[in-house]
Design goal:
2 domains, four-stranded antiparallel β-sheet, 3 helices, 14 strands, 30% helix, globular, Secreted protein, signal
Length: 256
């Protein structure tokens, strides 16, 4: 019995020593947890990086959106602006000088003409702006000589005055910048008619007065005895019985 009592405590002592030697297993679990935590921290860091990238991406995406605002450049609206500029010239677009024969002269080279063109229009737009107005002038006219000013050699003259007392005169006068434009300039006069087709750019200030004149001083016009037709301009395809000019605005720009 004495022996048994001695043995049991010894076994207890051995068991206690054995449990002190076990901790390595606990240390492994502990290391594994630390490692997981570390890797978890890494995951957390990665998540943070991803979120940061995502935020950055999202932010630059937003900037891209503002790039889309570049579409406002599509304010190609300058096209819209061009329409507004053309609107300034509405009062003169399509204007016609008409000097018909009082009656159809048949094949005669002259006819009585009591017509007179004398109209004034107010140009649109801003008084603070001078507009460069490109117009096309087409028609059938007789010749007139002018002195002074500058001729382009093709029946259009800037400035000057009429130099014959009996032949028809056709003009555009602008009040600002002040100038007169003659539309049937010729080195000589005679019983003749011819077609004109001028494309010219005329400066006109917003709000300026634009006057159109056509007169036959002796009331005897050269008839359209050659039956000339200006394609695309009424009364085409029929010839006009008399003389006429039509003005069509081609473009309008602001003078720099």
């Amino acid at each position: 019995m004495r022996v048994s009592l001695i043995v049991v405590p010894a076994m207890l002592v051995l068991l206690a020593c054995g449990s002190d030697a076990d901790p390595p297993a606990d240390d492994q679990a502990s290391a594994s947890t630390t490692s997981a935590a570390g890797s978890g921290g890494g995951a957390s860091t990665a998540a943070s990086t991803t979120a940061s990238s995502s935020a950055s991406s999202s932010s630059s995406g937003g900037a891209g959106g503002s790039g889309g605002a570049g579409g406002s450049g599509g304010a190609g609206g300058s096209g819209g602006q061009e329409e507004n500029l053309l609107a300034a010239a509405e009062s003169i677009d399509g204007f016609r000088w008409e000097m018909p024969c009082d009656k159809d002269p048949g094949n005669s080279d002259e006819c009585a003409c009591s017509a007179l063109v004398d109209e004034t229009k107010t140009f649109g737009g801003s008084p603070d702006t001078v507009y460069l107005v490109t117009v096309r002038l087409r028609g059938v006219v007789e010749p007139e000589t002018y002195k002074g000013g500058t001729s382009d050699g093709m029946h259009f003259r800037v400035g000057g005055t009429p130099d014959n007392a009996t032949y028809n005169r056709y003009s555009i006068s602008v009040s600002d910048p002040a100038e007169v434009y003659w539309l049937n300039d010729s080195p000589t006069v005679g019983h003749d008619t011819f077609k004109i087709d001028h494309t010219k750019t005329i400066p006109i200030r917003g709000g300026a007065k634009v006057s159109f004149k056509g007169e036959d001083p002796n009331h005897i016009s050269i008839a359209n005895f050659k039956h000339l037709v200006v394609d695309g301009v009424p009364p085409a395809p029929e010839p006009y019985v008399g003389q006429f000019i039509q003005l069509d605005v081609q473009s309008v720009e602001k003078k720099p």
